[in-house]
Inverse folding.
């Protein structure tokens, strides 16, 4: 399910944001500006509680229960606030890790008890230390960044700001380009090119990745047709596309996959799904069933970043897998550390015994390439051969690719 990102609210200096006694149904995170908080007593006197600035959360008790607002919050200057509705908060809490959910609920209830016992009103010295408040603001500031990125990413999909770059996958024996990995980029209208290392985790957290993955699969399939036409290599190359556990959790994942493959008219055997070990471990039975269907439809399955996830290798027998991609960290350390070299050797031997092909990632040095060939690794991907490229540059690279022309 795709979450609607929080909405942004603007207030001018002097505007009331929250009124004591009102029924609240949302909290706010201050993106910019300052607000002041006052509590009105029964005798009509007002007590100044404090000022809050960028990164602070206000009105958060409305997320905990349905009691009336206990303070009035006014904009001291022009403010931009991110609204978090109770409904959204509860939805996110429901889908949270059970430990996080339980602890959050306990803390929320205690927090509410503390407030209703009027500790803060009667004794301003009781409360969190200055360091704790400061630390809280730092964490909240990070949250603001994440929420902002999430909101902008939603627009990125709608505004056509996503792009795919393609990194060649090389046959180590012939040095021919045999496949391509599609890697997402975000061309932000102000910030320019944003790395997937920044936006993919946020897209996964918010669920927006599902929409992005669908876009990426369709775009990659269409690009494959264009690349084939430009290089004259019909039905020879394969395209590897990254998927997240959110994608697999969708009821219509397989339907969407089949529809895009058939609509773009690519051959299923030319498409490879890249997934991580952790995806397999979240719901092993579901993942197994889905992957069996994927393979039955003729597509290939690769395990990405192999070796970094779960130490148990026994699961490899359990899942239908065509390809292992050895993580770059092992390749990087392979020439200097024997443990890494031994690991690479074992992964290649293990994969081969199970009838899988092996791709080594992150090859930057010719010595690494030579060593991997010696170890009987099938394919390689890395800056030594080519960086991920936009489609136009890739056409050019492939047309001029000498090893293939030989
Ligand atoms: P990944 O799937 O492991 O992709 C390989 C990453 O290694 C890419 O980073 C690539 O540029 C980089 N790389 C390739 N060769 C070398 C090398 O020789 N040296 C070094 N240092 N790096 C190399 P990139 O494009 O920044 O992607 C980062 C990660 O973001 C990907 O890691 C993948 O986990 C994720 N990602 C990218 N595109 C997508 C997507 O469409 N969907 C999903 N779910 N995740 C994606
Ligand atoms: Ca990958
Ligand atoms: Ca990888």
């Amino acid at each position: 399910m795709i979450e609607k990102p929080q909405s942004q609210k603007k207030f001018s200096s002097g505007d009331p944001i929250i009124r004591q006694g009102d029924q609240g149904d949302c909290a706010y995170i201050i993106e910019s500006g300052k607000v002041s908080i006052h509590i009105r007593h029964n005798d009509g006197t007002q007590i100044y509680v404090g000022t809050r600035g960028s990164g602070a959360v206000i009105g958060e008790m409305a997320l905990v229960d349905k009691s009336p607002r206990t303070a009035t919050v006014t904009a001291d200057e022009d403010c931009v606030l991110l609204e978090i509705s109770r409904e959204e908060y509860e939805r996110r809490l429901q889908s949270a890790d059970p430990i996080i959910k339980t602890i959050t609920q306990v803390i929320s209830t205690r927090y509410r008890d503390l407030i209703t016992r009027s500790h803060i009103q009667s004794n301003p010295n009781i409360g969190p230390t200055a360091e704790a408040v400061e630390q809280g603001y730092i964490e909240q500031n990070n949250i603001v960044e994440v929420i902002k990125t999430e909101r902008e990413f939603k627009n990125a999909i709608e505004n056509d700001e996503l792009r795919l770059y393609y990194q060649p996958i090389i046959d180590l024996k012939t040095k021919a380009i045999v496949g391509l990995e599609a890697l997402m980029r975000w061309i932000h209208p102000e910030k320019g090119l944003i790395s997937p290392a920044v936006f993919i985790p946020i897209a996964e957290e918010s669920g927006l990745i599902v929409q992005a993955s669908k876009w990426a699969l369709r775009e990659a399939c269409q690009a494959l047709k264009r690349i084939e036409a430009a290089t004259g290599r019909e039905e020879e190359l394969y395209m590897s596309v990254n998927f997240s556990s959110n994608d697999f959790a969708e009821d219509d994942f397989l339907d969407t996959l089949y529809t895009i493959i058939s609509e773009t008219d690519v051959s299923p055997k030319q498409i490879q799904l890249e997934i991580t070990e952790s995806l397999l471990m979240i719901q092993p039975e579901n993942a197994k069933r889905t992957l069996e269907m994927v393979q039955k439809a003729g597509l290939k399955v690769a395990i990405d970043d192999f070796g970094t996830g779960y130490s148990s290798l026994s699961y490899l027998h359990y899942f239908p897998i065509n390809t292992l991609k050895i993580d770059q960290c092992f390749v990087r350390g392979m020439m200097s550390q024997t443990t890494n070299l031994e690991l690479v050797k074992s992964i290649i031997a293990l994969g081969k015994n199970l009838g899988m092909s092996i791709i080594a990632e992150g090859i930057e040095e010719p010595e690494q390439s030579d060593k991997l060939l010696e170890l009987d690794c099938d394919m390689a991907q890395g800056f030594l051969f080519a960086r991920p490229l936009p489609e136009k540059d890739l056409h050019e690279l492939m047309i001029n690719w000498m090893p293939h022309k030989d």
Summary: The CA atoms of residues 233 and 402 lie 15 Å apart. The chain has 16 helices and 17 strands. Confidence is low (pLDDT under 50) at residues 117-129.
